[in-house]
Specification:
Order of helices and strands of chain B: HHHHHHHHEEHHHHHHHHHHHHHH
Order of helices and strands of chain A: HHHHHH
Largest sheet of chain A: none
Keywords (chain A): Membrane, Transmembrane, Transmembrane helix
Largest interface: A-B, 77 and 70 residues
Structural class of chain A: mainly alpha
Protein name (chain B): Putative tricarboxylic transport membrane protein
Organism (chain B): Palleronia aestuarii
Keywords (chain B): Membrane, Transmembrane, Transmembrane helix
Structural class of chain B: mainly alpha
Distance between the termini of chain A: 55 Å
Strand content of chain A: under 5%
Number of domains of chain B: 1
Helix content of chain A: 55-70%
Oligomer: heterodimer
Pfam families (chain B): TctA (PF01970)
Radius of gyration of chain B: 22 Å
Strand content of chain B: under 5%
Helix content of chain B: over 70%
Radius of gyration of chain A: 24 Å
Distance between the termini of chain B: 54 Å
Largest sheet of chain B: 2 strands, antiparallel
């Protein structure tokens, strides 16, 4: 795999992103103020600063390894398109946003239907598709609300 | 005597029909998750974690133990029948079991796997119960500097066991430690890394990390390399010609394997279980290799060795008992499953350590009993009742399965605090874990860094504070020196000596 390929796959982007995160973390660590300190105490900022420093070193090693020894092609976990995971993330984000406003039943029904579409499950048989989506929603309503007594949000709660 | 009564009380607790139902349900769920390629018992317990907010601690622990034991055993089912290990710990069983399957002796292989799991799991559980009072006394001897060195030992071992990706292991562990520092400081009442928001002052809860790292990321990984089924023809999954009577291994074969192989493998598995980061796969591999080197029939290995199956399965199930030791003694989980069980304890306000073992052993005894009963009774019973249909598990449509897992994971995240923020965190950690897994960073190291990070910081700061900031306390304190020496020994054995051998 060429450098560009590894860059887009994440082999280099991910440690670079972590360097940015570590820098933000380190800057915030220097802002931590100790309330009290006795002789021999190490303050609440010491471990975060130490962790961030070690993180820089480890990330540097990872970056050198990624550049020097590119992985030999894609393993099974890394093969395939990113479209499906992106669609799953999108559907999940929508589910979380609608969970309280629409209530468990409707939002879960839409979420399950969206996942069925992404996973191409029974998409050619609409009746089965609908029945399975209803069944999954109902089964987990039964499990959480009826068996474990969890108070799940309802549509009316979200509207009023 | 008191210990015996407490343990007897643990078995008595299993007679309560609610607790019994949770144990059986846990075992069946664990069997399903362990047998299904791609799903693991860790995922099953991760999905259970939110439910523990709504049930008592005893059924929650009992259920966790039965899931753990079932998940370790049931990986052998698909490993034997279709040569796809349901769990990584069943890799060695796949080598031998599937050979027997191809020779038309699949039921016999499943029977040996179940017998090995039953004996190993039982020995592991008995050793756990027998040594728990001693473990409690030993843990009382470890002082703060020693605890720091012990946590450091655990983190170092977790990183170095994956020799091929040590730098990435360090990154993942440090990432976990960084996440754990968000919130109120471990010793002073000051918030850290909340970035001006109130939501982060309390820190990040274990649950969204666990659900994200193990459930959401798994759904995303599966979505990426999507295949609607496991690629096993329906006919293969439906008709394997397995009969119940063939599950019982003939006495002559058991004699040939020998009681010593079972016991030795179980002790190896238990010992490896105590080590942080080692887990069922290493237990199975080491025990298999040991059995092979001392076997009277080494030529059978690779061609359907029943002894190999017995050694691997005894060890990985015995590992379950060993894995509980460091978690209960010091709150140091050696693997993700016990890390989540630690979460169950903490959610219920229980702090692992000698006091828990001494004063609240009545809460732990049913969990120990559940480990033993799961191994001794439920493994053979489940094989006998459901064995002929086991392989049909893989005919379940993956689209339906992973959609259901996504719903349980997200609604489960909501359950803990009735907040959509937890669901968003679970999604966020799921995306992070997905990126990590794609790039070969260990999510287990991140989880253990997250759990052990606060302990590491607290013990370090307390030790230095009590010794006027003098770091030599870690070398002058005998318990600390012991753990530092053990750490150095492991680094030498795994990295330096292991590296030379590989070269």
């Amino acid at each position: 795999m060429d450098l560009k390929g590894r860059f887009t796959r994440g082999g280099i982007v991910f440690p670079l992103a972590l360097i940015v995160v570590t820098t933000i973390y380190l800057a915030a660590a220097f802002d931590i103020r100790t309330q009290f300190s006795a002789a021999g105490d190490i303050g609440p900022q010491t471990i975060p600063v130490l962790t961030a420093t070690l993180m820089y070193v480890a990330l540097l090693v990872v970056l050198i390894q990624e550049i020097r020894n590119p992985p030999d092609g894609e393993d099974e976990e890394n093969s395939g398109s990113l479209l499906r995971p992106a669609l799953v993330v999108l559907a999940t984000a929508g589910y979380i946003a609608l969970f309280r406003p629409l209530g468990y039943s409707l939002s879960t029904l839409f979420f399950v239907a969206a996942l069925f579409l992404v996973f191409e499950f029974e998409t050619r048989r609409p009746v089965r598709f609908a029945l399975y989506a209803l069944a999954v929603t109902a089964v987990f309503y039964g499990l959480f609300a009826l068996v474990f007594g969890v108070r799940l949000p309802t549509l009316t709660e979200g509207l009023f | 005597m008191e210990t015996v009564l407490t343990l007897a009380g643990g078995f008595g607790a299993l007679l309560d029909w609610t607790v019994l139902a949770f144990m059986i349900a846990g075992f069946l769920v664990g069997t399903f998750f362990g047998a299904m390629p791609g799903l693991t018992s860790v995922l099953a317990i991760a999905l259970l974690l939110p439910i523990t907010y709504t049930i008592d601690v005893i059924p929650a622990l009992v259920m966790s133990a039965s899931i753990f034991m079932a998940g370790m055993y049931s990986g052998s089912i698909t490993a034997t029948t279709i040569n796809i290990p349901g769990a990584p710990s069943s890799m060695m069983t796949a080598i031998e079991g599937n050979r027997l399957m191809k020779q038309g002796k699949g039921a016999n292989a499943l029977g040996h796997a179940a017998l090995g799991s039953m004996i190993g799991g039982s020995i592991g559980a008995i050793l756990l119960m027998a040594f728990m009072p001693l473990a409690a006394e030993i843990s009382l001897l470890i002082r703060t500097p020693g605890k720091f060195s012990l946590v450091l030992f655990a983190l170092v071992v977790i990183i170095i066991v994956d020799k091929g990706a040590i730098a990435k292991g360090v990154v993942a562990t440090l990432l976990g430690i960084m996440l754990a520092t968000i919130g109120i400081d471990v010793l002073q009442p000051i918030p850290r890394f909340n970035f001006g928001t109130e939501t982060l002052i309390e820190g990040i809860d274990l649950m969204p990390v666990v659900i994200g790292a193990f459930a959401v990321s798994e759904v995303l990984i599966q979505a990426q390399s999507w295949r609607s089924s496991f690629g096993i023809p329906d006919a293969d999954a439906k008709d394997l010609g397995i009969r119940r009577r063939d599950f019982i291994p003939p006495l002559s074969e058991i004699r040939q394997i020998g009681l010593l192989t079972y016991v030795k493998s179980a002790i190896i598995g238990y010992g490896i279980g105590i080590l942080p980061g080692a887990g069922g796969s290493m237990a199975a591999f080491v025990s298999y290799a040991t059995a092979r080197s001392s076997s009277k029939h080494p030529e059978e290995y690779g061609n359907g060795s029943r002894e190999g199956i017995a050694a691997a399965e005894s060890a990985n199930n015995s590992m379950c008992g060993g894995a509980f030791v460091p978690m209960l003694m010091f709150g140091i989980p050696g693997d993700p499953t016990t890390a989540i069980v630690l979460g169950v304890l903490v959610i219920n306000g229980l702090q692992p350590g000698p006091r828990l073992l001494e004063n609240q052993a009545d809460l732990l005894a049913p969990m120990f009993a559940s480990l033993l009963i799961s191994a001794l009774v439920l493994i053979p019973l489940t094989l006998f009742l459901f064995g002929p249909w086991f392989v049909r598990i893989v005919s379940i449509p993956k689209g339906l399965l992973y959609s259901a897992i996504a719903v349980v994971a997200l609604v489960g995240s909501y359950v803990a605090t009735y907040s959509a923020f937890q669901m968003a965190l679970a999604l966020g950690f799921g995306i992070l874990a997905y990126i990590m897994r794609r790039n070969n960073y260990s999510t287990v190291s991140m989880l253990l860094g997250f759990i052990l990070g606060p302990d590491l910081e607290q013990y370090l700061r307390r030790s230095l504070s009590l010794n006027d900031g003098n770091p030599s306390v870690f070398l002058t304190s005998p318990d600390s020196l012991f753990f530092l020496a053990v750490t150095a020994l492991f680094v030498y054995a795994i990295l330096i000596r292991g590296g030379k051998r590989a070269a």
